[in-house]
């Protein structure tokens, strides 16, 4: 099935996803540095993030898990020129690569990249940090429950929270799988269920060039 999913993603991309020099340059530079692209969002998923931001006229975006900043480019392109992104990456080498990609892109939006464990960086933000309109959680899956709570504390009524990779080819329902990343995702589902601060939420499975996975999405009450 994988080959067909990949071919269909290529078909979708060739029709609906405009070629963008900045995005192409980001992928090319990331590949040249020897990093596989499987950690990055697929282009048609990047476009979905862009559309959610546009739909809600978001201006302040928080991203947990920058990797090479490919998803960050999609988030930034969706924002007005005075838009702001705080993106946090836990691994030094990924953060260095991400900073190069961000510098090369020369986007008008302000992209603030911080390196460190996302939970530590978020807890160290000043008390008067303005809430974020859109939050993309894509860092270590083990910490998703913690990231969800911290994100809710940095959001306002109507903020959108998207969590990537919440299906992992079905591993979440394989009872024998006790990997911390999978347990983290399961705990995130439990936390989202009837959460007093969430207005509505769902999760969708996806198939495509990145295999079988899915994302969860919540609107803050
Ligand atoms: C992995 C992480 C991601 O955020 C992703 O989109 C795909 C894969 C991983 O850790 O393997
Ligand atoms: Mg991801």
TrEMBL record:
GO terms, biological process: methylation
Keyword Coiled coil: no
Transmembrane segments: none
One Pfam family hit: Methyltransf_3
Entry keyword annotation includes Protein biosynthesis: no
Cross-referenced SUPFAM superfamilies: S-adenosyl-L-methionine-dependent methyltransferases
Protein name stated in the entry: Methyltransferase
Annotated GO MF terms: O-methyltransferase activity; S-adenosylmethionine-dependent methyltransferase activity
Highest taxon, organism lineage: Bacteria
Keyword field: Methyltransferase, S-adenosyl-L-methionine, Transferase
InterPro entries in the cross-refs: Cation-dep_OMT, SAM-dependent_MTases_sf, SAM_O-MeTrfase
